[in-house]
Design goal:
about 120 residues; two-stranded antiparallel ribbon; about 10% strand
């Protein structure tokens, strides 16, 4: 159930409506605070809070895009590996068992297509 969570960053309080668990909220807020503090410390001159927030958002978005690419590469590698293993298994089985393996292979493909992190966007 969605609820209001208030948090403070750089001396300003922000409201956030969320249905995330307490643990997730704490992890998210700690990550955001840490990234903002790191960004403001790494700036050579004093930057207004809104500019620090934009720079932090850009840095986090860049990391998200990289993780998304890494995940797609991982999925491709795992799909290729499953296909190779399936091929090896099929070639070592008697002919009458190939149909059963083929059916299992399609179940594996279906399962792999469903293995995506919660909230993952293919865009």
């Amino acid at each position: 159930m969605e609820r209001l969570v208030k948090f403070e960053v750089l001396g300003q309080e922000y409201p956030l409506y969320t249905d995330a668990s307490e643990e997730d909220i704490e992890e998210i807020l700690n990550l955001v605070k840490m990234q903002i503090e790191n960004q403001s410390k790494s700036s050579k001159s004093f930057l207004p809070a809104n500019k620090v927030a934009v720079l932090t958002s850009l840095n986090m978005a860049g990391k998200y895009v990289q993780v998304k690419k890494d995940f797609e590469q991982y999925k491709k590698e795992m799909t290729d590996r499953v296909e190779r293993l399936t091929s090896v298994i099929k070639s070592s089985l008697p002919h009458d068992m190939e149909l059963q393996v083929k059916e299992s292979g399609s179940e594996i493909d279906e399962t792999l297509s469903q293995v995506e992190p919660e909230g993952y966007d293919r865009a």
